[in-house]
From TrEMBL:
Protein's name in the database: Substrate-binding domain-containing protein
Secretion signal, residue range per the UniProt entry: 1-30
The entry's keywords: Signal
Top-level division of the source organism's lineage: Bacteria
């Protein structure tokens, strides 16, 4: 929720019931300071969380996720190098991506110094109590622990596919997993007779780690030919240069739907298309504002993925000394709350999620995990 004009942000903040904090940066950006709970992390969930935090009528009904009687602040994954989430709180590096968001939440809990993956961000900042919710496009993975201090709450079902700038070359529209693996370990360099530039999201991105896992790769086996971009942005690379021609990059199907329908921020480069690694099963169906998720693709055991909101378990567990009733209300499955996954009625948060390309998650059971 940022703008290049402080006055514009002030108006937005006033409408959202949030206090204003002026951020001095190379982008001359400004963002709200949360008067209650701060949400950071995944770019995949950024647009839909912003809509729920600020209020939206995209379903035809007014929907806003609040913490009891308090509004919340959702901070973008990109923008200025640092943010301030609480009044009189420290300035710390902007959490960019799922991993960075969960790490920031972990440091907010344990009090250890936090360093963001955002280039140029301040290092080793103590951010105790500054982050309340992390957006995550992936589950806890190896951090899973039935007694862990973090709680991953299913948010919605997404699917991971790829976008490409291969133009009219039909070979780019359906690239199988084996070929994608070869492109990203650099053992394959062409598709349809054309040289390909593979692009991976920035470090700390849940989509990056999820993509590597699905292809059977690791950071160590990722090829040196791969360039780095910002996840779900096919206009430019992370260094600001233009997205290359004949490039292939991981893409959240939900993000692609939202960017096409106008629900989310449009970061599609000119002529960029979405492909599918499953022959005959497109990731999405329809075009423009009529685009919707393809349930058959989302349900695939390899390419479908659940997304999560992450909180400290103790703060949402009744009877615990750290229990916070307002935070528990915010992440509950009640109609307008962040944990709601039902989409039959317009006033439910699940209906908003569907407009942003998310379907109901494969399970509503939360998972506990260690700090990151």
């Amino acid at each position: 929720m940022k703008s290049s004009k402080v006055s514009k942000v002030a108006a937005l903040c006033a409408a959202a019931g949030l206090a204003l904090s002026t951020v001095v940066s190379t982008n001359a950006a400004a963002e709200p300071v949360s008067s209650s709970f701060a949400v950071v992390g995944s770019d995949t969930l950024q647009d839909v969380l912003n809509a729920l935090a600020n209020g939206t009528s995209i379903t035809g009904a007014n929907v806003r996720s609040t913490a009891g009687d308090q509004n919340i602040g959702s901070f973008d994954a990109t923008g200025s190098t640092w943010i301030q989430t609480k009044a009189n709180g420290p300035r710390f590096g902007r959490p960019n991506g799922s991993g960075d968001g969960v790490k920031a939440l972990s440091r907010s809990i344990d009090g250890a110094p936090y360093t963001s993956g955002t280039p140029g961000a301040p290092a080793n900042v103590v951010i105790t109590g500054q982050v309340d919710v992390a957006r995550s496009s992936s589950g806890p993975g190896s951090n899973t622990n039935p007694a862990g201090p973090l709680l991953y709450i299913p948010f919605g079902r997404d699917a991971l596919t790829y976008a490409h700038s291969g133009g009219a070359n039909a070979a780019f529209d359906s690239i199988d997993a084996a070929t994608l693996k070869g492109l990203f370990d650099c053992s394959i360099t062409t598709v349809g007779g054309v040289a390909v530039t593979p692009v991976i999201p920035q470090a700390g991105s849940g989509t990056r780690s999820d993509w590597l896992s699905k292809l059977g790769l690791t950071e160590a086996t990722l090829g040196s030919c791969v360039q780095v971009g910002q996840e779900h942005d096919t206009e430019k690379l992370s260094d600001g240069s233009a997205f290359p021609a004949n490039a292939v990059t991981p893409m959240s199907a939900a993000q692609w739907v939202a960017q096409n329908t106008g629900a989310g921020i449009d970061r599609r480069g000119a002529g960029v298309k979405v492909g599918s690694p499953i022959a005959g099963t497109p990731a999405v169906t329809g075009t423009g504002t009529a685009m919707v998720p393809n349930a058959a693709f989302y349900s695939n055991s390899t390419w479908g993925r659940d997304t999560y909101i992450v909180v400290e378990n103790a703060r949402v567990t009744a009877g615990d000394t750290k229990y916070d009733a307002k935070l528990a209300d915010l992440v509950s499955n009640a109609g307008s709350k962040l944990g709601n996954t039902q989409s039959a009625l317009g006033f439910q948060a699940g209906s908003v999620k569907k407009k942003f390309g998310f379907l109901a998650p494969s399970t509503t059971a939360p998972q506990r995990a260690n700090l990151r």
